[in-house]
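Fold this complex.
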Amino acid sequence: MNEVNRQWLLNSRPSGMVSEAHFKYLETDVPEPILADGEYLVRNLYLSFEPAMRGWMDDEPSYLPPVELGQVMRSTAVAQIVRSENPDFPEGQLVQGMFGWQDYALGSGRDDMFPANLIPEGVPPTLPLTIMGGTSLTAYFGLLHIGKPTPGETVLVSGAAGATGSVAAQIAKLKGCRVIGIAGGPTKCQWLLDELKLDHVIDYKNEEIGDRLSALCPEGINVFFDNVGGRTLEAGIDHIAQFGRIVLCGAISEYNNASPAPGPNNLMNLVKFSVRMEGFIMINYMDKIDQAFADLGQWLADGKLKWKEDIQQGFDHIPATFLRLFNGANEGKQLLKLADPR
Amino acid sequence: MNEVNRQWLLNSRPSGMVSEAHFKYLETDVPEPILADGEYLVRNLYLSFEPAMRGWMDDEPSYLPPVELGQVMRSTAVAQIVRSENPDFPEGQLVQGMFGWQDYALGSGRDDMFPANLIPEGVPPTLPLTIMGGTSLTAYFGLLHIGKPTPGETVLVSGAAGATGSVAAQIAKLKGCRVIGIAGGPTKCQWLLDELKLDHVIDYKNEEIGDRLSALCPEGINVFFDNVGGRTLEAGIDHIAQFGRIVLCGAISEYNNASPAPGPNNLMNLVKFSVRMEGFIMINYMDKIDQAFADLGQWLADGKLKWKEDIQQGFDHIPATFLRLFNGANEGKQLLKLADPR
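Structure:
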């Protein structure tokens, strides 16, 4: 093995919108010497991109430590094991893990928060990054364990054409709810109506969210699964029903603010209408993951879940691909392909 | 009975700070003719004042309909029954109900949301408006059923010297928590330390809440019982711990804003740290009221609950007494005495 290990490092912390200039390209040696006991070497095949990665670039306390300057940018990936001193991770196997923006990464088999998972034979390599991956689990746990929708309730999903939102919206439909999706542009909105069979869509680029919610939700919103934050969150709170639940999954409209933007001015609605607003991260629910995979797998087998993969190409294109999340260019789950399995 | 019935009516809706000019004094006849079957006539003895009454003056949807212009201002009171065509409400008995800012009121025995309650013989007439009343129940349900503190956790209470906050803080102490109270001015803060035995106090009029929380809560706040909203809420969210709970009881800093003020700019902390923020009103928990009264009564009998009554006098002084809630003049539960029982 005499290739180089290409890497994208975090080079500076953004104040405001992230750009390619915040990352630095580097070529290093592939970790070549004899592996320590338990270690294994992987070659990345697909990188996964999520909005939450923007938060990892900030030097602020959060559920994960910040990526240090000069470190390889943290990222989930599907990889193939190419060397191993760990019998649980044999050579040739596909594995999902937090392998970062690089060609090759070392795994130890003992990552606590994000243990690497072997991918069973025959499973398409992108599946653990898309419909059977973290974004779907996030939608599943957030909607069912925090939102707790009941049949006939009205569920609003923002970022509804995104990887998480589209799954949350579909699970809400499977649970017998009336589902309204917010997305940007006619292509995404049409997909939500035609393929995901949502009841209504709001195109935030061409419609006033508040006006549409007034028309669509005279009885109020029972569950709001919010990926967007900011004005979108405020509009949802304006129309929340008594005993409504607001699932705070993320706030993509806020991640690139140079300074914190004012929050929703209508939190008194939470008091007036006895509303619960709750944030979460997927790993809180690891004890329930078997049931989640069982449900998702069943729905998948029954053809009841649809998704889109937006697969970019080229190592050089990694930072630019990340930026697609924040300008809304991605059509479905954002991935980048680095290599085919050998 | 040839007295007049003095009344204070809602005369105009405030835009911004409420003032005496928003109310109008009127003298009418005492409801004198033969009562309809089931009705009873009461004479008010004590009026109760709560910040939530400010919300009832706005023409906005809420958990109760707005007070109409020209109507008697809505208010809880303790009264004495002076005529009755209802065997359940005999003459001479003391009764608590939503009798409004007037000398005399008719009760029907069938108010749905706030049924009038007879006050048992021997109970001091102010007790159902103070420590054994709605403000204590609000503290009890909010802290225990939403905040759910466990022994050793850090509980922050804003408006801690108020009628609700002081009870929430004491219940948190009874549950084995470390309790920090926020109040305005040295007198209130000293009472919280000396009488209520809180662990720490923050005088928001003379100290920077955020700086004090940084010093007092390096591990974060587990439960924040918030009566204040605005910047106080934002400061609490800045220091919320993982899996923290924020009990939204009210937002007294916001009630008199002419236009909605920007909300907390740090709601992403709810996502990062998996925080639940939940609003409520006391009447959601009516099915648990027997247990609540049993617990409060036991603590009261054991001398474990302390409270202050701020009893103003004079019918003319009713609107001015209401304003005391919003300039922080009240020392404890705000009441106004109209008459002694006969």
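The domain at 4-129+308-337 of chain A is CATH 3.90.180.10 (Quinone Oxidoreductase; Chain A, domain 1).
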